[in-house]
Specification:
Blueprint lengths: L9 E4 L7 H7 L6 E3 L2 H5 L2 H6 L7 E3 L8 H13 L5 E5 L1 H15 L22 E5 L11 E6 L4 E6 L7 E4 L9 H20 L5 H17 L2 H4 L4 H21 L3 H13 L3 H31 L1 H5 L6 H20 L15 H9 L13 H9 L5
Length: 388
């Protein structure tokens, strides 16, 4: 079977990874970078955690909102040009990293309108703009992906930008940046990474390389997601979750995702549900919907979640046990961190169900979902036919 796989990002991972920042700037001839982050991380002095390792002047932009938009991308694009910067260092979660990717594409493609870069892998390699990614959560894997999701306020949709050229040049995974993350956010982002890996392993775009990445991520997350609640300051556990997020990002960047993300994107756009929480609400209902098509692959996933349980389970029961295992995991996270796991908690869901279904139906993630999805199926999932 022919397939393609790409992961160009150099990884600097583990305790003190940030000490390599100046060295990597030198390697890429960066002398005046633009550091992108959000106001909260700036107030919490996260910028100081990275700039103490820089010996070059830099510009700072901190006005990136939680749900960043094409307008923010354009503002930063002009800011970068105005201050004659020569590289991007993005510090933050998914919104910051995806915003940085949008800016990177506008700069590298030398275009003045965001609309010019919309499309599915249609652009050629553009101008060289060094791009470093420093994630402060362990969930989106955006530092490793060829995908960016950016809000279009006028259309009230989340645009998916896909290009092999928006993977970062260097990613820094340092536990000092995630060790103080609240447990609810820790749980939500870890579940996001877990869903990336599960959907990468079960969608129609999967290949042998993405399977290796996805299965490794599933194992790392299952081994560490509950441990981090008991020992939130443990640097090794935090490093493992950050690495799992990166690996899961590499997996789905080469295979894509599926129905959980399609509905999750729509739920976020219409009801403004944080992405990780949308994943935790939708994972089990969507797996149950896909069960008749994906039973064999769901059964294989149990091997990476819990090898002993896999070996002690009858082959015909593996898929059901996998779903039960994940359901119980989510219930534990809910009880210990208040992570929302039920669609009933979305107060504005019922009156917006039709709009959510329409947006989900037009989401590119459905193209690689193994089971064909109709609008009625999405409404059934949102309405509780498959539980939660």
């Amino acid at each position: 079977m022919y397939f393609e796989f790409m992961n160009k990002t150099k990884l600097c991972a583990g305790e003190n990874a940030l000490t390599q920042l100046q060295y990597e700037c030198d390697q890429y001839h960066i002398k005046h970078p633009l550091i992108l982050t959000d106001s909260t991380l700036y107030q919490l002095k996260y910028v100081a955690k990275i700039t103490k390792h820089l010996s070059i002047p830099y510009q700072l932009y901190t006005d990136i909102p939680v749900d960043s938009s094409i307008h923010v991308v354009k503002d930063i694009y002009h800011f970068y040009q105005q201050h004659q910067c020569d590289g991007i260092i993005a510090l933050g979660g998914g919104s910051v990293l995806d915003t940085a990717k949008g800016v990177f594409l506008m700069l590298s493609q030398e275009c003045d309108s965001f609309d010019e870069i919309l499309g599915f892998e249609v652009m050629k390699k553009g101008k060289n703009i060094p791009f470093f990614a420093i994630p402060t959560t362990s969930g989106t894997g955006s530092e490793a992906t060829s995908v960016a999701v950016i809000h279009h306020p006028q259309k009230n949709v989340k645009l998916e930008i896909i290009s092999q050229y928006i993977q970062s040049d260097v990613a820094f995974l340092d536990p000092c940046l995630t060790i103080h993350l609240p447990l609810r956010v820790t749980s939500a982002t870890a579940v996001d990474a877990l869903v990336h890996a599960i959907e990468a392993y079960t969608c129609s775009g999967k290949n042998i390389m993405s399977d290796i990445y996805a299965s490794t991520a599933i194992s790392l997350i299952s081994q560490n997601i509950l441990k981090v609640i008991e020992k939130p300051k443990d640097k090794e556990i935090r490093s493992n979750l950050a690495l799992a997020s990166y690996i899961a990002g590499g997996a789905f960047s080469n295979s894509m995702v599926g129905i959980v993300h399609a509905i999750g994107h729509a739920l976020g756009a219409v009801c403004h549900i944080p992405h990780g929480e949308a994943m935790s609400m939708l994972l089990i209902p969507c797996m149950k919907f896909n069960l008749d098509t994906n039973a064999s692959l769901y059964g294989e996933i149990l091997l990476y979640l819990d090898k002993e349980k896999y070996l002690s389970t009858k082959p015909e029961d593996l898929a059901d046990v996998t779903i039960s295992y994940l359901s119980n995991l989510l219930k534990i996270l809910h009880s210990q961190t208040k992570l929302p796991i039920s669609l009933n908690e979305v107060l504005s869901l019922k009156e917006n169900m039709d709009e959510i279904a329409e947006k989900a139906l037009n989401d590119g993630a459905l193209l690689v979902n193994e089971k064909y999805v109709y609008k009625k199926d999405i409404i059934d999932i949102l309405g509780g036919k498959y539980g939660y």
